[in-house]
Amino acid sequence: MVVWSPFRFNSGQQMANRFAMAPLTTDSSHDDGTATEHELEFVRRRAASGFGAAVSSAAYVEQHGRSWQGIGAAHDGHLSSLHRLAAAMRAAGGLAILQIYDGGRIAKPELIGEQGLRAPSAVASLRPGAKTPRAMTANEIASLIASFREAACLARKAGFDGVEIHGANHYAIHQFFSPRANHRVDHWGGTLSKRLNFPLAVAQAVRDALGPRLIAGFRVTPFESELGGYTLEDAKLLCNELARLNLDYISVSLDDYRRSRPVGETRVYDGPVEQRHAPTENPVTAFARVIAGRSAVMASGGIKTCMDAEGAIKMGADLVAVGRAVVVDPEWLCKVRSKREASILAGLPKDEREIARALSIPPRMVEYLLSRPGWIPRL
Ligand SMILES: Cc1cc2nc3c(=O)[nH]c(=O)nc-3n(C[C@H](O)[C@H](O)[C@H](O)COP(=O)(O)O)c2cc1C
Question: Could you tell me the distance, in angstroms and rounded to a whole number, from the CA of residue 180 to the centre of ligand 1?
Fold first, then answer.
């Protein structure tokens, strides 16, 4: 089966199999952005099941871009924490990839102060209760690109095998690409080709910081389902340009790779159908066609069995990332590999203390998981 075969990236780094642990924020770091023992244990236990690679929870690159209480890759003070994280992620010899992000207009005011909220334009997110950010100056944009570069340098120093740029799920890079969030009329916005400038500048900066021998990946939401959002055709153009920068992989962020459902900005999927954009092509297949082997394609969303993973590969993916299945069952990959799928845990236990204890999930993460009903299955 293809899913158990090795995969070599452009950079020469090799995954022993096609399974990656998806980036999973635990919302459980120390206030200063260093990793807690709880979250290291969460990652260590899951990575130990033999993933070809693990992608970390998203690390903020600037304090003003924090969207939750997660890890940071913003300054030298984060280096030893990142070092310990990389070691935990390599529990079974797989590759360790650091995901980096900035929250832009969906940073959390409680963490950064309301005055600190900054984004491509002064346009509030559609999330309920969202505050209006102020538009970033050209200098702030240049600094943010430099912060992504610095974060990639920190990842290299901390011993990671690569970096994944979080360009998806409505965070700052996604906002720069979105005509709904980006109303600028300078170098960074106004036309589709100008809205490409920020994502591409970050990708170039990260590639330069890592050099050719470490992995540079980019996570993208393949289209916006909201009215007036960017389309799959726009995102295909972005992928084509990213592949030209010799990125190692493009990760396609979907809630379900078969049904092509991206994470909506309000996190509600079932709005009025006539107001929602839906592509006619599957995004994984569409991106694989455009990229044409120049970078790998990583699919995610709804992978719960080996057949699901093989299905994604048949649709054009080279790699798959698995999220909720490994939250619920830390030994998911061992069970899949040894053909014990019938014993995979189907949901979180009823008892909240049991969730934390039996599954090595930090208590704050348990709260976060349970705060969105229907998101993670319960027994
Ligand atoms: C608890 C939790 C935290 C997540 N944190 C991140 C994150 O930090 N970065 C990211 O790109 N995606 C994040 N995601 C999205 C997952 O990586 C994945 O794309 C999504 O859950 C769909 O895949 P799945 O059906 O296998 O869970 C998170 C998902 C969950 C459930």
Answer: 23
